[in-house]
C-alpha cells in the first residue's frame, strides 16, 4: 500500500520506519517550517511541504497534484492538529473507508463533540455547556457551582483554558471571545488526580492500554509554569482497572476502530469517581511513547503503523490477525522542563535507569525505566528538585512539551 503521512510538527519517525519495513510506499507531507527537521528520510519515498495546513483548499490542490502521478491508499495524520485535516482530505478524495471522515474525526479533536458523545454513552463527564446561547450559559452558571473552565474546543492539552471563579469573570471572558464564542465551551472544574491511558485499538477493540499518572494536572504546569512529569501507574492498583475500563468504553463507543490513542481522565478528590476529560486518535507527546516502550515493551508509533497496514476496507474481521509484541512489566517515567540554558549539560545525571535524554534547545528532560514504581518515583522526585534548582526557566511549558 501507499501512505501519505501528514505532519505539521516533527514527530512520528518510528511510524514511517515501520511502514517502510512492512513494504509500504511512504510519502511525507509536512509544512515548510518543519521541512529541515531530522525526518526519517530513509523511510520515505519522497517528502513534500506546503506553506501551512490551514489553507484547506490549497492543501486539497497540493494533494490532488501529487495524486496525478501517485496512487494514495491511506492518509494518516501524525499530529493532533492534523487529524481534522486528514479527515477533510479523506472526504474530498472519498477515502473514508480507510479512516475517519469529518464527523468521526471531530470525536477525537472537538471537546464539545467528545462530551456530547460521552453523555450519550453514559460516560461520566464534568458538567458542561456550549457557549452558543447566553440564556443556557446563565442557567448553567446558576445551577453548577464554580470554579469553571472555559476551554477551546479544538486545542491540545491545556492551551487556551481559562479558570474562572465568578459569573462576572465568565461573562468578561465570553465578551473577549467575540465571534470565537462558539468555538469554546464552559465546564465545571473537577479537582483531582489526572491520568492518561495510552492505548492501541484493533478492529474496534482495545488490545493494549497502559495507565499513566501525571505528577501535576497539565493546567497547573501549562499556565503556572513548572516541571512536567508523568509515570506508569502501578498495574495492580484497583484504580488502574477502573481507568482501563473507562478508556475502553470511550474508544469503543467513539468508534476509533484502528490505531493509537491518548485519553485523559480525572479521578475526583471529592467523590473518587473517574471523569472523562478528552481523547485523541494519535500517540501522546512529551516522550510518552518512549516511556511506554521501555516500561511495557510496546512502541506505540510502530504498532500504530502496523495496525494501519492491516486496517481493512471491507467488513470487520476481513483482515490479517494483529498481535502485540512480547510485553514487559517494568515501570517508566518522564520529566521535562524549559531550561535557562540553550543546550543544557546533563552529564551529571548518570543513573543507569535513564533510557532517553531530550535533545531540544532550551529544554531538559529524561525518560527513566526501572523494575519498581518506587524507584521511578524516587528518580523523578530527585530530578525535579535538581531541574528546578539548576535548569528550570520560569515560563509556561510549551504546548508540544505538555502534551
Quick structural summary:
The protein contains 13 helices and 16 strands. Helix 1 crosses helix 11, helix 2 packs across helix 3 and helix 5 crosses helix 9. It is of the alpha+beta class.
What descriptive keywords fit this protein?
Rossmann fold, 4-stranded parallel beta sheet, disordered C terminus, globular, 403 residues, 8-stranded antiparallel beta sheet, 3 domains, D-amino Acid Aminotransferase, Chain A, domain 1, alpha+beta, 13 helices, 16 strands, Dna Ligase, domain 1
Structural class: alpha+beta
CATH homologous superfamily heading of the largest domain: ATP-grasp fold, B domain
Could you give the order of the helices and strands? EHEEHEHHHEHEEHEEEHEHEEHHEEEHH
In CATH, the architecture of the largest domain is 2-Layer Sandwich
> What shape does the CA trace take?
globular
CATH topology of the largest domain: D-amino Acid Aminotransferase, Chain A, domain 1
CATH class of the largest domain: Alpha Beta
Helical percentage: 25-40%
Which segments are poorly predicted (pLDDT under 50) over 5 or more consecutive residues?
Answer: 396-403
As a whole number of angstroms, the C-alpha radius of gyration is: 21 Å
Cα separation of the termini = 31 Å
Average predicted local confidence, pLDDT: 93
Number of helices: 13
**How would you name the oligomeric state of the polypeptide chains in this document?**
single chain
Q: Indicate the proportion of strand residues.
A: 15-25%
Q: What count of domains describes the coordinates? A: 3
Spatial order of the strands in the main sheet? 13-12-9-10-11-14-16-15
Number of DSSP strands? 16
Biggest sheet descriptor: 8 strands, antiparallel
Amino acid at each position: 500500500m501507499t501512505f501519505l503521512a501528514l505532519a505539521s510538527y516533527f514527530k512520528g519517525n518510528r511510524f514511517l520506519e515501520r511502514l517502510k519495513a512492512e513494504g509500504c510506499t511512504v510519502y511525507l507531507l509536512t509544512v515548510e517550517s518543519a521541512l529541515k527537521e531530522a525526518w526519517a528520510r530513509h523511510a520515505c519515498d519522497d517528502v513534500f511541504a506546503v506553506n501551512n495546513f490551514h489553507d484547506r483548499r490549497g492543501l486539497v490542490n497540493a494533494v490532488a497534484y501529487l495524486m496525478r502521478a501517485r496512487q494514495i491508499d491511506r492518509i494518516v495524520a501524525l499530529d493532533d492538529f492534523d487529524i481534522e485535516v486528514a479527515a477533510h482530505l479523506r472526504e474530498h478524495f472519498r477515502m473514508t473507508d480507510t479512516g475517519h471522515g469529518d464527523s468521526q474525526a471531530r470525536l477525537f479533536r472537538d471537546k464539545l463533540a467528545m462530551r456530547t458523545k460521552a453523555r450519550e454513552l453514559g460516560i461520566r463527564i464534568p458538567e458542561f455547556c456550549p457557549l452558543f446561547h447566553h440564556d443556557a450559559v446563565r442557567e448553567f452558571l446558576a445551577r453548577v457551582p464554580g470554579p469553571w473552565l472555559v476551554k477551546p474546543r479544538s486545542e491540545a492539552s491545556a492551551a487556551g483554558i481559562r479558570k474562572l471563579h465568578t459569573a462576572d469573570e465568565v461573562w468578561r471572558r465570553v465578551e473577549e471571545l467575540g465571534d470565537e464564542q462558539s468555538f469554546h465551551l464552559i465546564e465545571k472544574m473537577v479537582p483531582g488526580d489526572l491520568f492518561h491511558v495510552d492505548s492501541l485499538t484493533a478492529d474496534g477493540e482495545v488490545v493494549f492500554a497502559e495507565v499513566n499518572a501525571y505528577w501535576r494536572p497539565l493546567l497547573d504546569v501549562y499556565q503556572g509554569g513548572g516541571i512536567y512529569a508523568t509515570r506508569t501507574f502501578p498495574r495492580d492498583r484497583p484504580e488502574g482497572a477502573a481507568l482501563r475500563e473507562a478508556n475502553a468504553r470511550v474508544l469503543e463507543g467513539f468508534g476509533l476502530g484502528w490505531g493509537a490513542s491518548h485519553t485523559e481522565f480525572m479521578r475526583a478528590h471529592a467523590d473518587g469517581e473517574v471523569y472523562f476529560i478528552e481523547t485523541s486518535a494519535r500517540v501522546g507527546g512529551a516522550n510518552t511513547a518512549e516511556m511506554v516502550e521501555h516500561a511495557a515493551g510496546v512502541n506505540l508509533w510502530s504498532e500504530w503503523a502496523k495496525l494501519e497496514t492491516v486496517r481493512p476496507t471491507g467488513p470487520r474481521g476481513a483482515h490479517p490477525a494483529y498481535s502485540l509484541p512480547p510485553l514487559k512489566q517494568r515501570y517508566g517515567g518522564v520529566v521535562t522542563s524549559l531550561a535557562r540554558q540553550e543546550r543544557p549539560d546533563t552529564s551529571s545525571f548518570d543513573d543507569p535507569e535513564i533510557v532517553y535524554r531530550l535533545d531540544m534547545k532550551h529544554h531538559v528532560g529524561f525518560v527513566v525505566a526501572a523494575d519498581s514504581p518506587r524507584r521511578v518515583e524516587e528518580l523523578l522526585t530527585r530530578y525535579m528538585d535538581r531541574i528546578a534548582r539548576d535548569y528550570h526557566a520560569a515560563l509556561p511549558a510549551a504546548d508540544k512539551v505538555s502534551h
